[in-house]
Amino acid sequence: MKANFKEQYFSSADGKKIDLYEYSPKNKIHSSIILVYEIFGKTEHIHNFAIKLASEGILVHIPDIFSRFKSKMIFPYSKEGFQEGIKIKESLGWQIPVMDIVSCAALLKKKYSVNIMGFCYGASLSWIAVQKSFIFEKAICYYGSDIHNFLNKKINCSTILHLGKEDKGIPENLVKKIKEYALNQNYSVNIFEYDNADHGFNCEDREHYNSDASNLSFKRSLDFLKGLQ
Q1: Does residue 164 register a pLDDT over 60?
Q2: What pLDDT was estimated at residue 229?
Q3: What is the rounded CA–CA span in Å between residue 54 and residue 97?
Q4: Terminal-to-terminal C-alpha distance of the chain
Q5: Which residues, at least 6 apart from 21, have a Cβ–Cβ distance to it below 8 Å?
């Protein structure tokens, strides 16, 4: 493993203990990031992606937002797994997970600049988090299918979105709405769209995995975090 891994917990703003997974670089830490998982929980894909980020000198914290119900809730990439994840999402709502995410980020902010990255459900949560707080330096959202429902408040940091052009859950008319929103922000919103890429294109364990889109989006994300774009 190209990262040091440990499990711990933190207290959210309401005093609830939330499980936390930390992936720290073997060498120097250049920055930190909150990684927010998709509807399936902290899957092997998320685990591997955290290691990938840590190998680039980024300290990664994954708040286990599902642990408000039960620790280590992980669902398979299937219709049944998706439905189980939706039940948890609907039970949690939007505000409580965002509170947990920002509380987690506040701990990192004591020592490091803090960024945020999320996938699908986690991307939408990340988007809301940068609207409701000023704690994040930069945000990266992969195929956030609910982002178009949260265009009533301004974002508070530079953000990039990675979207698949074949993603029927985020069709062209909704992407257009997000682009129009981006024109009226105080911070940049760069939207990257990937050919032949569907929802979940970054996940090697899903049927719509697209290695070209995955590799390019990761490079763009790293360049963004390192201030190269």
Answers
A1: yes
A2: 57
A3: 24
A4: 29
A5: 5, 6, 7, 42, 50, 61, 62, 64
